[in-house]
Design goal:
CATH topology: Rossmann fold
Largest sheet: 7 strands, mixed
Number of strands: 7
Strand order of the largest sheet: 3-2-1-4-5-7-6
Radius of gyration: 17 Å
CATH superfamily: Vaccinia Virus protein VP39
Bound molecules: S-adenosylmethionine
């Protein structure tokens, strides 16, 4: 696989990352107190969460030592900050239980980089506390993709970014595949309810009940979208991602 293009990611994924965190924080009834960021990269999501949830326990994992060093330095040494150099696949082993259970697990644009995304998603479901949510945002492979064309909406600026995105698309799931994963997880892990969507805010249009609920519960989203609105193509780009929400029953249902 082509190396991760940090240049592309730094330029193009900031809004998606911030929205992923904001939508993720709306999913439960109460603000989450233990949060895991899988493929945390340089820790920007964790740092954003720390600003708004000063008392939460935050755990990040990423196999890149360089990314982990940056994440540790961005987050600082607080007692609730933990960043580990670890691939997500390790969460499928017995050692994962040392991390405990989480109210919220975020996986932003890293699922397609994993060797066995289904095994990882199933393992993450097992790490959810009752009432907890796992929210995965990932690039969506178009159903009838020709294996070459990189959609203009993704905003690649040169041949190396196109190659990076082509690799990402090839490794990504289509909506149908993601829905099949959601349904497998629900069959294999007790008490799970999972759903996958394309585009929108957390997968929902602004005039749907779910979209309205997210808007009402995440007041910072308006500002994020307003500043992104000034950027050409940001609306079309939102349609290029899939949202998988996995919820573990219990702990007070909505
Ligand atoms: C596109 S970056 C996204 C980083 C971060 N989630 C964000 O939104 O800023 C993808 C990240 O996934 C990480 N990654 C690659 N393979 C992984 C694996 N097997 N398990 C967990 N993370 C992985 C990479 O090291 C990289 O930091």
């Amino acid at each position: 696989m082509t190396a991760v293009s940090t240049c592309y990611d730094d330029r193009e994924t900031e809004l998606s990352r911030a929205l992923c965190v904001e939508v993720g924080l709306t999913l439960g009834e109460h603000p989450p107190s233990r949060i895991l960021d899988v493929g945390c990269g340089t820790g920007k999501s964790l740092a954003w969460i720390r600003q708004h949830l000063p008392d939460a326990e935050l755990v990040g994992i990423d196999p890149s030592e360089t990314a982990v060093r940056s994440a540790r330095s961005l987050l600082g040494p607080g007692p609730g900050n933990h960043v580990h150099a670890l691939p997500a696949e390790d969460l499928a082993g017995p050692a994962a239980h040392r991390f405990g259970r989480f109210d919220l697990i975020l996986v932003h644009l890293s699922l397609a980089l994993m060797r066995d995304p289904f095994a990882v998603v199933r393992a993450l479901a097992g790490l959810l506390a009752p009432g907890g949510h796992c929210y995965v945002v990932d690039l969506l492979r178009p159903d009838a993709w020709d294996g070459r064309t990189v959609p203009a909406a993704l905003g690649a600026q040169d041949a190396s970014e196109e190659a990076y995105l082509r690799d990402q698309l090839a490794a990504s799931m289509s909506l149908r595949e993601l829905r099949a994963v959601a349904s497998e997880v629900d069959h294999q892990v007790p008490d799970m309810r999972s759903e996958a969507y394309q585009g929108g805010l957390g997968g929902h249009g602004p005039n749907t009940p779910q979209g309205r609920r997210i808007w009402a519960r995440a007041p910072r989203i308006g500002g994020l979208l307003a500043s992104a609105g000034a950027r050409p193509g940001s609306g079309a780009q939102m349609n290029t991602v899939a949202h998988l929400v996995m919820r573990r029953n219990g702990g007070g249902e909505r």
